[in-house]
Design brief:
Strand content: 35-45%
Largest sheet: 6 strands, antiparallel
Number of strands: 30
Radius of gyration: 22 Å
Shape: globular
Helix content: under 10%
Structural class: mainly beta
Number of helices: 2
């Protein structure tokens, strides 16, 4: 069933009741992904790109329903490309369950990518790949850590220090740590249970910046905020410093992921803001948000307001004069993404689907330069299809072109039209229109591009 806008705890009444509700909601700092439910953000910066790994709540989840992990990439912090599911519970042959794919973290070392995966009630496993996109495989065939006397082994966070020593912290409600060996898939010594950090609940995020060690975490439930502690040593003692984001009834849970990128610092977290565009009740259907954060001269962190009130600006313009995968967007509420070839190995190749009349896809900060000449989209329509209106700046902003997509007999086909008036840096809206015969599931989109004026 298609989503509808309703009153919610997270969205102000005046917005939910307004005729321009979505436009007003977009003025808030809303979650990064709208086509799937994402949680437990685990960002990593590599070769000038952010790789954002997340856990994945089912579209119909009431309680936790989690079977795989997702990946998104960005170079500007606002337009994100869906790269599919690089790993799932099926990659652990020793686990025969169909739920429990909780919060992961991924680190890179010597060209290998290591994914540390909690499987609720069955410890923490590890997967390895030669690429951030996978395929990820299990190198040890059993859990890396499993304290069978309890179910506290969740939410691993791994950091490699300047001397090459890697540490893995994890746990709810206790905080545990081991020193990983150089192979990153085994550890030496005993599991250490750390002294209690005030307000610590779960979801630790361990990192180092300017000589300071940081332990960010989801603070005591419920509602959870994001707290943090600091230390002069990777093994503590940890001194509680306060909140990165305070407990707030505007959400229920949280889970931090923190990076520096292109001269700025960012805190990722999670909330229920996309679900609450549809429902005011509670269900475990979460979404990842991000906000720019700042440090004080002594290394402490300036407290952030709730995500809606935070700042998240585009870092660099978006280049339209290339093949752009259609699953790259800043906003696509109501749309869905699916794997293009479910039988192939390239899990990151996605299609935009579930396209209905009146919906749209937004790409922010598109740099058209001196002007665009044509627009090409690769699409397929099984029935009568529809059209795509290309608008600038707003859903009903200047119209620069319209492309009609007819029946393609399931084949993906290129459609090209001339455009006029696309110059400079503008927000681009692909607005979808049906026809008298068809209003829903109009077509699937693979990729698009503009050509510049000569």
């Amino acid at each position: 069933m298609k989503k509808r806008l309703s009153l919610s705890l997270a969205i102000p009444l005046t917005l939910a009741a307004s005729s321009n509700c979505l436009a007003e909601i977009r003025s808030l700092n809303m979650p990064l992904i709208q086509t799937k439910y994402t949680a437990d953000p685990a960002p990593i910066v590599h070769n000038d790109t952010i790789y954002l790994y997340t856990s994945h709540d089912g579209d119909d989840a009431e309680n936790f329903k989690m079977v795989d992990w997702l990946l998104y990439t960005s170079t500007d912090m606002v337009n994100w490309q869906d790269r599919g599911a690089p790993a799932s519970l099926k990659d652990f042959k020793w686990f025969d369950g169909n739920n429990g794919a909780w919060a992961i973290q991924v680190v890179e070392k010597n060209g290998k990518w290591y994914m540390y995966c909690p499987i609720h009630g069955h410890g923490i496993g590890v997967l390895v790949a030669d690429s951030p996109f996978g395929p990820f495989t299990d190198p040890i065939g059993h859990p890396l850590v499993w304290q069978k006397e309890h179910w506290y082994d969740i939410d691993p966070t791994v950091f490699i220090d300047d001397d090459g020593q890697a540490y893995m912290y994890w746990g709810n409600p206790n905080l545990y740590c081991v020193k990983l060996n150089d192979d990153m898939i085994s550890y030496s010594g005993e599991i250490m249970m750390m002294s209690k950090i005030s307000d610590y609940q779960e979801g630790p995020w361990f990192y180092k910046r300017n000589g300071h060690y940081y332990m960010a975490f989801a603070s005591t439930c419920c509602p959870e905020g994001i707290g943090y502690a600091m230390s002069d040593s990777p093994l503590g003692p940890w001194e509680y410093k306060g909140h990165i984001m305070d407990h707030t009834p505007r959400t229920r849970g949280n889970h931090p992921g923190i990076i520096d990128y292109k001269g700025k610092s960012y805190c990722f977290g999670q909330n229920y803001d996309i679900f609450r565009l549809d429902e005011s009740r509670h269900a475990e259907r979460r979404s990842v948000s991000a906000a720019e954060m700042e440090y004080n001269p002594d290394g402490t962190i300036k407290e952030l307001p709730y995500f809606h009130d935070c700042k998240l600006e585009q870092i660099e313009p978006f280049n339209p004069y290339r093949k752009v995968e259609a699953e790259t967007m800043a906003w696509g509420y109501g749309l869905k993404t699916v794997q293009k070839n479910p039988w192939g190995n390239e899990k990151w190749n996605q299609l935009v689907t579930n396209v209905d009349d009146g919906e749209y896809l937004l790409v922010k900060g598109v740099d058209f330069g001196k002007g665009a000449d044509t627009f090409t989209v690769n699409a397929s329509a099984h029935l009568w299809g529809g059209s795509i209106e290309l608008h600038l700046d707003e859903v009903d902003g200047p119209l620069i072109g319209t492309v009609n997509i007819g029946n393609t007999k399931t084949r993906l086909t290129d459609f090209t039209v001339p455009v006029e008036g696309a110059q400079g840096i503008r927000d681009l809206y692909l607005v979808f229109r049906g026809n008298p015969r068809q209003q829903r599931n109009l077509f699937d989109l693979d990729y698009w591009s503009f050509s510049p004026k000569k």
